[in-house]
Design goal:
Length: 679
């Protein structure tokens, strides 16, 4: 708004003129330059730049612009100095949903923005009048009534200056609205914000809809919508009673309206109702999710190791007359689609721990880092979510799906194994609910496959699957893709976090710098290297001569893959096998020489430490003057005893102070100086 620049001069800022009256600043600038030296036309009060604002002389503007802007030197409407467009109102009203569901119409939004801007001006005017009355020590009575008159008369000002009108009440209700606006803000001026107006006019209200859904959902025999319509009609005619099983309330049929059968069926079949009722009626959660639950749409990863999907499965074959099937647990690298980890057993007992051990074995022996992310089902993995499957332990990211087949990519791979590799094998069993006729039960009799043969054949199927072409790169097999497209930023295995969970535990000790494990004496190490020097001594200070726990994991060939020492439940060091060398000198190789150097350094570290410790000890002795007897009451006769006697000592006068008077004269001798030094 224009403001007083001096006693009689009014200034107008640039943003009040552009783009409302001039399209751009360049147009205004040219007009200022045109009338710069003339006695009429638009003039500057202050040149812009260097932190100053460009100010235009209000009196130099034409009458149309002056009327639109208003003159602060002239008395205007009381609300005019306080009115400005509320910048927060558009955001609120464009996002507001009536009843939490319906966005306001555009004309409603515009109306409420105008009303909110006026109400904020009213609040400012109210405060100004309160301060003025306090200053004049006047009564506060009647301020709200004056504000109501101001709001009513402000309508003409809005029409003339802004070409808009407000819809605020100018009756006695204005007092209640003002109070509500102070308390609740923008929502106070919205008509029916909760959307209950339309709800009250509905023939099928929320209570009736709840009754219909309850009759459809809760009965044991799963009635059809037509049956529910008949039941509702019987309830209205008092042939049946409807009650709330939780509260014991018996519903009065006089409170409900008569509905046609088509209306009842339409309401029961509404999406928002079937979404809830079918969840309780459905016996197959996967079928329900496939029909109602939206699924995520994602791009496939392109680098191996980015994410692995794991799950259990039972290949469709039986190995005994009882119809028992083998349990497999598989891990599929999603980018390459290669199966990288497999374990199996007759039951699911312990299979998940064996699976994670096998995964670590495989990836470590192949020389690859463990995958960055894991997606898995919750039934077997939920017990490890606070230890092994905590993000940052074995994997950096973990997604646990609760019985959601579509949420795990491995389900697609299981389908490929079932229908592309296993279906052609003898003894294959079809699903009883298969949609495709080709995958449904056949007339062939069920065949029993011995357990060992069944497992061996399924492992061969996995081999064939891994060696089959990758769908996005037919020139590479799935396994070749896994090897050649490893993600470069995978983190090394966090052995300290996973070994206490999946590793085997052995109680052992350290003697003379070696730790006994699996019948071998192994060396103290750290970060994959055997320690020497001060680092070795520091670890020996902690564990030498003590018992502690070693958690270790074996490799696919039975060798110790990794072993870690824990003392008092705290990680101390790693355990590694000391490389050996040939006793015969003539048969030694370069690796034998390296082993000699390492073992020598290992032994020398302890010897050097022993020598440093020994040299720290000075020749300290002790004279024990403590009496060995209490008294001398008991004595043998005829025993000679020797007692110490004190000899007189002559004491000479100290003449050191006169020593400085004597001059040292060296003695001349014919004996050479080097001989004299030794004589």
């Amino acid at each position: 708004m224009p403001y007083l620049y001096s006693n009689k001069t009014v200034a107008v800022e640039l943003d009040e003129l552009v783009p409302k009256f001039w399209n751009c600043y360049e147009g205004l600038k040219k007009e200022l330059q045109r009338y710069k030296e003339k006695s009429f036309g638009i003039k500057r009060l202050q040149v812009g730049g260097n932190g100053r604002k460009l100010l235009i002389d209000y009196d130099s503007l034409n009458n149309t612009i002056q009327e639109a802007l208003g003159d602060p030197r002239k008395a205007g409407h009381p609300l005019e100095p306080f009115f400005e467009w509320d910048s927060n109102a558009p955001e609120f009203y464009t996002k507001f949903k009536r009843g939490g569901t319906t966005i306001l119409k555009s004309d409603e939004q515009e109306r409420y923005i105008i009303n909110a801007s006026v109400m904020h001006a009213v609040l400012k005017l109210e405060q100004a009048r309160i301060q003025a009355r306090i200053k004049m020590k006047s009564s506060m009575v009647g301020i709200t009534e004056t504000l109501r008159y101001d709001v009513e008369s402000f309508q003409n000002h809005l029409k003339a200056k802004h070409q808009v009108e407000h819809t605020l009440p100018i009756s006695i209700r204005f007092k209640d609205l003002l109070k509500d606006f102070k308390t609740n803000g923008y929502i106070a001026i919205i008509k029916d914000p909760n959307g209950t107006g339309k709800q009250n006019a509905r023939k099928v209200d929320e209570k009736t809809e709840m009754i219909l859904n309850g009759l459809f959902k809760n009965q044991l025999h799963k009635p059809t919508p037509t049956e529910v319509a008949r039941n509702y009609d019987a309830f209205l005619n008092s042939y049946a009673e409807v009650y709330n099983e939780d509260t014991g309330e018996l519903y009065d049929p006089k409170e409900f309206k008569k509905l046609s059968q088509a209306t009842i069926i339409n309401y029961i079949n509404k999406w928002e109702n079937t979404l809830a009722t079918y969840k309780s009626r459905s016996g197959d959660r996967q079928v329900y999710m496939g029909k109602f639950k939206p699924h995520h749409q994602m791009e496939m990863p392109t680098l191996a190791g980015s994410i692995i999907s794991i799950d259990d499965r039972q290949p469709p074959f039986v190995y005994n007359k009882k119809g028992d099937r083998v349990w497999f647990y598989l891990g599929v690298d999603i980018a390459s689609q290669a199966i990288t980890s497999v374990v199996y057993g007759k039951t699911k007992e312990g299979i998940i721990v064996d699976f994670y051990r096998q995964m670590v074995r495989n990836y470590t022996e192949w020389g690859y880092c463990l995958p960055h992310e894991l997606e898995c089902e919750s039934s077997l993995n939920s017990s490890y979510k606070d230890s092994l499957l905590r993000p940052g332990a074995m994997f950096q990211e973990v997604k646990i799906e609760a019985n959601n087949a579509r949420g795990k990519y491995i389900e697609r791979i299981n389908g490929k194994l079932r229908y592309e590799f296993e279906k052609k094998e003898i003894g294959w069993i079809a699903r009883p609910t298969a949609k495709s006729e080709a995958n449904q039960l056949s007339s062939a009799k069920k065949q029993i496959i011995p357990f060992d043969i069944l497992v061996n054949d399924r492992m061969l199927d996995i081999e064939d699957y891994n060696n089959s072409p990758h769908p996005d790169n037919l020139g590479l097999s799935r396994w070749d893709y896994f090897e050649k497209h490893q993600h470069p930023n995978l983190k090394p295995t966090n052995w300290e976090a996973i070994l206490p969970v999946i590793g085997y535990k052995t109680v052992t000790s350290c003697k003379a710098g070696y730790i006994s494990l699996q019948g071998k004496k192994r060396a103290i190490a750290e970060n994959g290297k055997i320690l020497t020097g001060e680092a070795l001594i520091q670890q020996m200070r902690i564990i030498e001569g003590k018992e502690f726990d070693v958690y270790w994991l074996d490799g696919n060939e039975g060798q110790v893959l990794k072993a870690l020492v824990y003392f008092n439940e705290r990680f101390v060091c790693e355990v590694m096998e000391m490389p050996r060398y040939n006793r015969a000198t003539i048969e030694r190789t370069d690796s034998d020489q390296d082993a000699i150097i390492l073992q020598s350094a290992y032994v020398a570290s302890v010897d050097a430490f022993e020598k440093r410790q020994r040299n720290k000890i000075e020749n300290i002795q002790i004279i024990d003057n403590k009496p060995k007897t209490v008294n001398s009451n008991f004595k043998f006769k005829n025993i000679k005893r020797y007692e110490a006697r004190e000899e007189p000592v002559e004491i000479f006068k100290d003449d050191d102070e006169n020593d400085d008077q004597f001059v040292f004269v060296p003695q001349k001798s014919s004996v050479p100086s080097w001989k004299r030094n030794f004589m």
